[in-house]
Amino acid sequence: MSDELKTPDDVAAAPADAEKTASGLVSKVLKEGCCTDHPGPRDTVKVHYTGWQVSDGKMFDSSVKRGEQITFPLNQVIPGWTEGVQLMVVGEKRRFWIPSDLAYGEVPQRPGAPAGDLVFDVELFEIEKAAPTPDIPENVAEAHEDAITTDSGLAVHHMEEGQGDTPGPKDVVTVHFSGWTLAGELVESTALHQGPAQFKLDQVSIKGWVEGLQMMKVGGKSRFWVPAALAFGENPPQGAPTGDLTFDFELLDVAPAPEEPKGIDAPDDVAAAPDDAEVTSSGLASKLLKAGSGSTHPKAVDKVLVHYTGWTTDGKMFDSSVARGEPISFPLNGVIEGWTEGVQLMVEGETRRFWIPGKMAYGEKPSRPGAPAGMLVFDVELIKIGG
Question: Which sequence positions are flagged as catalytic?
């Protein structure tokens, strides 16, 4: 076994010369880095790592063993990693002793996750800086004097007039946007992600967006002051902001909605999982439709290639890679919880049907534009693990 994979002699307890932060994270530099810049909490990093359980010294995961570095945004991993990797510079290798409350907990909710305190050796290779946070508008809390106020209470100020098409109520729009509370707290922004957002207007839950975007033309930039009743309401879904909100929009493109794919009928059991379905402690139900040929299950950090079709429980198909004729590849820790947990039950070549509770999908009142609500049913074929 490579020395990098051997259980460290100090896995059970950090040495006296290790550094400790206020959160309880402990670390020690194993190899000095070559640079001075540290990653920020939203930056994307490329690393090699190996992890061991403190309780028994057992190695549970290693990118070194797989021979493939891993890339991820620091705000999408366990708190111990988010905090710890920010202490590092490129070229540095560091050992972390991560208490359970900064890892997956004493009783992990995520299937396959290691329990208790963990030790990681991490080597940092690259830092990709996140896009800067958009500036707070000066008039975030009060509509511009030239704003148009509609009968619904929505106020819209056209900062730059567009020259293209105006979207209709069922069109697909491509936009850049940023949103703030009236106190200036950033709610969400496409600037924090890799590209613009695209959604069908009649599938958006924020009524102020639907109304305001139909007042714009492609190429235009507008600011919306959206009253709570036209946003998420006074009792918003979990994670959504309360009260009035302000949004800046740039309308990049408008396209007619594509025809809904045909030829994929809803399963007979779409409304509820059958008695012979397997149900996990989280409430996820699944049933094997076709046995696979492999024996390895993917981990939450793995990338997978799948074909899938999804229905709401009333039998409406809302998405399908099968209908598009193109499988999709994604990291398992970057999708809804029901997929993260469920696909880890599978092996290559397997097809499985999942009944995913709303809390493990997009919620009963999705905050993401165009996302389906409530329990969802998916048929998933696992084509490949990795790559």
Answer: 49, 60-61, 78, 104, 120
For the beta carbon of residue 287, count every other beta carbon within 10 angstroms.
16
pLDDT on residue 258:
66
The helices-and-strands tally (H runs, E runs) of the chain is 5, 21
Domains of the chain, with CATH numbers? 3-128 (3.10.50.40), 148-255 (3.10.50.40), 278-385 (3.10.50.40)
Question: What is the reported pTM?
Answer: 0.55
User: Going by DSSP bridges, is the β-strand pair 221-226/376-385 parallel, antiparallel, or unpaired?
Assistant: unpaired
* Stated length of the chain: 387
Q: Which pLDDT value is given to residue 364?
A: 82
Distant-in-sequence, close-in-space partners of 46: CB < 8 Å, separation ≥ 6: 69, 70, 71, 124, 125, 126, 128
Q: What is the pLDDT of residue 369?
A: 67
SS3 82: helix
Question: Distance from CA of residue 278 to its chain's centroid?
Answer: 26
**How many CB atoms neighbour CB 166 within 10 A?**
15
Looking up tokens 């049907």 gives: 353
**Banded pLDDT at 82 (limits 50, 70, 90):** very high
374 Rama sector, left if φ>0, alpha if ψ -120 to 50, beta otherwise:
left
CA distances, 354 to each of 110, 312, 320, 378 (Å): 17, 12, 14, 5
The predicted-structure confidence for 4-19, as pLDDT tens digits, reads as follows 789 999 999 999 999 9
pLDDT of residue 127: 95
Instruction: Quick: pLDDT tens for 237-254.
Output: 766 888 999 999 999 999
The three state secondary structure string of 224-235 is EEECHHHCCCCC
What is the pLDDT at residue 319?
87
Nearest to 361 by CA among 379, 331, 340, 345: 340
